[in-house]
Design goal:
single chain; alpha/beta; Rossmann fold; five-stranded parallel sheet; four-stranded mixed sheet; globular
Length: about 250
């Protein structure tokens, strides 16, 4: 349950279409659910604006799928990151609405009553095609959180004219996610051209001295451009989540 859902439930109690006893039962169900191998936080949507997200890496596929199903049953929507096709298959056995996002390595599901038209605008940029898995994870995350998303891919600094031709579109965004590996220069360039927050995502793309994304991470942390916030290496989810929160704040 999210805040609009809680408000709707309380409105129905006031109108007499929902009993106080039933409302109390539903609120009780927002407590932690213990599955033995996981303790699910069903009130996170109320506190943080989005239900608990399932990070599948390291979990047994059947456990990840089961956690996702329980969150979906309680909240009407769920996002599973770093998933595999096996997790998706197991999840779909219980939740036919499940959608597999291959490049993003994500599984999503949303019931009609938990969905709303997308608002605002988040721009997601990828320096190169090799950065697309991270950029796509950010895109899927922001969309699940209700943002309208436009993508701008393969616009890295090695061919800066590819980026400059998109400036008008980029400047319409409320927040921008920029994923880049190698030397990680793209977020600084973008932040020097727009007046909106830039969420920089270093990727693990690059040759030996990139140190699995550490080089790009340090470049982004040392950016001389103002308005750049940096998330962890390959953390497209974290970048998309932050950009969606910024986008949501500008709409309120």
């Amino acid at each position: 349950m999210d805040l609009p859902g809680l408000e709707d439930m309380l409105r129905r109690v006031r109108e007499g279409t929902l009993s106080p006893e039933e409302a109390a039962r539903r609120l009780k169900d927002l407590a932690v659910e213990d599955l033995g191998y996981a303790r699910l936080d069903h009130s996170r949507g109320l506190r943080c604006g989005f239900p608990e997200v399932v990070f599948c890496q390291g979990k047994r596929p059947r456990e990840a799928a089961a956690i996702g199903e329980r969150i979906f049953r309680k909240s009407g929507k769920v996002l599973l990151t770093r998933a595999t096709e096996e997790v998706y298959r197991l999840f779909r056995e219980k939740v036919p609405q499940g959608v597999w996002h291959d490049r993003a390595r994500c599984v999503t599901a949303a019931a009609p009553e938990a969905s709303a038209p997308p608002t605002g605008l988040v721009a997601v940029l990828a320096a190169g095609t090799a950065d697309l898995p991270v950029a796509e994870e950010a895109k899927v995350t922001a969309e699940m959180m209700g943002a309208r998303v436009e993508t701008f891919y393969d616009v890295g600094v090695a061919g800066i004219h590819r980026l400059l031709g998109k400036l008008e579109a980029l400047r319409r965004a409320k927040a921008l996610v920029v994923a880049a590996g190698m030397e990680g220069a793209l977020p600084s360039v973008v932040a020097g051209l727009v007046d909106r927050p830039v969420v920089a995502v270093p990727t693990s793309v690059g040759y030996g001295a990139s140190f699995g994304g550490v080089s790009a991470l340090l470049s982004m942390l040392n950016s001389c451009a103002a308005g750049v916030a940096v998330v962890n290496i390959d953390n497209g989810f974290g970048a998309g989540f932050l950009a969606a929160l910024i986008n949501r704040g500008t709409e309120s």
